[in-house]
Batch of 4 targets.
Target 1
Amino acid sequence: MTSEPAALQHLGDGQCLLVTTYRRNGTPVPTPVWVVRDGAALGVWTPTKSGKIKRVRRNPVVTVAPCTFRGAALGDALPGRAELLDQLGTGRVRHLLQAKYGLLARLTVLGSLVRRGRDGTIGVRITLTPQN
């Protein structure tokens, strides 16, 4: 079994993360997103009005797994807990994404800021939960 710090490092170093949130009826909804390491957690960034944010507001329990850009899982899913970040935390995640993904992320963030404004996107901090 992989230790939590090693798993966190592996997931944070990956190109994409498959974040699975849950509908009210328990149906899992997997979504591939860019991922960065954010201290002892993972950071992702997404539109504020996206379905995954609505689901996280209702239920912060998620699973995460490394994946391809198209969402094909590349490893086992690990349990986690998602926390929606304030504007300062969201800015930190944007900056980390731009540092990791370079020009593509800078263009994506700029386009998003033009289309949606600063409040149109939100950072999400995902902490892995210990497995028994």
Target 2
Amino acid sequence: MPKGRTPMHFKTMVQTDVPQGRHGKHKHTITVILNDLDQLPDGAALKIPLDGLAYGKANVRSALNRACQKAGKNVATAADETYLYVWNAKK
């Protein structure tokens, strides 16, 4: 190591190998929900079992909210002890 330099604390990699775009841990779940919402008839809601949400209701709701804002969708949610309900809200 050249004189006067401190050792690096982190590993390095080639910049072209850095993943581009954000594909968080909720991406698959949110993609499926958004796809189902696009096909949902008026007056209906998706009934999503909470035990099927690996990262919890609050985290999925937050990720869904971010995705809907980005896509310009207006959705509403509700939940009970067993299910998360999601539907297209009127604009």
Target 3
Amino acid sequence: MIEVARLTKNYGTAFAVRDVSFRVDKGDIFGFIGPNGAGKTTTIRTLATLLTPTSGDAYVGGFSALRQPREVRRLIGYMPDTFGVYEEMRVGEYLDFFAAMYGHKGPKRKQLVHDILALVDMESKREDVIGGLSRGTQQRLGLARVLVHDPQVLLLDEPASGLDPRARVEIRELIREMGRMGKTILISSHILPELGDLCNKVGIIERGQMVFSGTIQEAVRLAGGDRVVLVQFATNGDAARTALEAHKWVAKVEAADGTLRVTLKAEAEGPWFIAEAATAAGARLVRLQEEEINLEDAFMRLTKGIVS
């Protein structure tokens, strides 16, 4: 659905992005990660047809952002990190204005505004003046605005920037709902734990160059992160531990608060063998859970802390 192909943008001798390539498939929620000045916004603005690259191209739905901008704009909803709003307008008027700009008329437009307000949980704010809204509520309104023409692809540049914890949770749940609706979403953010919970794929960019693109699990493996399984037994836990410590696919076993942390070797195919080994040792298994993958650790290991 999205393809960035050897994208380069330079200003004289300074490069904003250099030879950036990655792909986002239909239905993906793709987290775009990098420090300030890494090139995230440059890439997103190119996809949004707002910036002309020095070389390379970016495609949405097979259309070139460089050569077919009108077709791309029909497919995308772009939400920048900071956006202007008409502060003296009311919420309902604001969305009605943009619905009219996209050609919606009469009862259909009225119903569309109603449905979008319901989707972002702002029906009660319909008559409120925008200038009096909190930043978090204005962010929700900004997301509502980009949904007016029902885009297939959402480009969200730091949508939770500057929000309090509750507002961040609300924005995250809205984005998750957009994913359930089948939207393809590219979202940049500095809040890595939230992206780890929200996204199925990530791209890491540093100093204008891609460091990684793929699943979070692949990022952790590339970074050399250990694969750890948490195990608890109802009976014969000591015997199970002894069996696991001797298993060819186990690197080490640690005990803490009645739970075993079993670190797997790189060649281990999966944690299923743990249940087999425990049963053979006469233990009764009550918990087998792979430890949550830490996107922050992977990011810190794959990047060098360099900014443009």
Target 4
Amino acid sequence: MSVQLHGETFINERTGVTSSTFRTIPDVPIGTFELTLPQGPNSALAANTNLCTTHNLKMPTTFTAQNGLQIKHATPINTTNCTTHKKTKKTHKHKHGRKGAKKG
């Protein structure tokens, strides 16, 4: 069974903390939670580094239940649409004969 939720996102520019609040959630167990945000210039999140070259990305996550109990977790973040570049072996060609040869 899939349940779609409506949430409100708040970005605190002073602290840099982004939070999403779901005011009403049906009384069903939640096994997984997936958040998809729009990409591009109007995205809710931005990065100040190349995320394709950064490893072990984690996002601090807190779930607060209606009764006030909390679950805190460091949620792993996976990147998508990253291209891999093969390292090419550089060869050096010397224009003036052999390396180290004396000019005469």
